[in-house]
Design brief:
Layout: E1 9-14, H1 20-28, H2 30-35, E2 36-41, H3 43-52, E3 57-61, E4 72-81, E5 88-92, E6 101-104, H4 109-122, E7 128-131, E8 144-149, H5 150-156, E9 162-165, H6 166-174, E10 178-185, H7 191-203, H8 208-214, H9 222-229, E11 231-233, H10 236-257
Parallel strand pairs: 1-2, 1-3, 6-7, 6-8
Antiparallel strand pairs: 3-10, 4-10, 4-11, 5-8, 5-9
Helix pairs in contact: 1-7, 4-6
Length: 258
Amino acid sequence: MKILELEKIRIGVVNYLNTRPMVYGIERSEYIQQNAICTGDFPANVARGLISGKFDMGLVPVAVIPKLPQYYIVSDYCIGADGEVASVGVFSECPLEELEEIYLDYQSRTSITLAQILFKNHWKKQVSFIPAEENFIENIKGKRGAVIIGDRALRQLNISSYYYDLALAWRDYTGLPFVFAAWISTRKVSQEFTDEFNKANALGFQHLDEIVAKEDFSAYPLKEYYTKNVSYHLDERKKAALSRFLQEIEEFEGLLTQ
């Protein structure tokens, strides 16, 4: 029997530096290549594809979970952090206390939701949030900052005067690690697929030097990023953190509708 009703599973894969260790094995797994169709995009688009039915499964920002009628966590791997993640944060040219406006990066639902929750509940700072357009980073000036994620954030560390790491702020707020993205399916997959998918995710961590050597990226030390900043194993503490974040989303969105 095939994995999903005799059809190949359609997987949305994120094309960021932080996914390289997991994607390394997925691209080399004969089993995955035979039984799945993988399509790359940025996180928010993968999330839209999962909601619309374009994908059966994807590495999606976890803030999309409440929008799914049902969901299953497929893999023991995720994009998480237990401290400073370095690639998700608020960038500005003035201290956070002086900020009045924040651009929200359009590439990830989780990060912008997390930022709004942290401003309200942790930093207790009222700002105006602005949906970001494509060239929003150029407009970080004065009392206007921005939430930036992914590879662009790693580059921006060398440019902006101030950086406030969202994963570190979340840990200060809750005492927990954070899960930015997880492999989520809208339908059950077989245990065989889960086992093979976990095996594929794991392979890249045995080849980090090879992965780093192939990347033409000098803005941040990638070996350090893969081993110290991003935390990939979806352990029990991260599952507890995910539950807490989903609860925070529910409460936050409840206040917005009042």
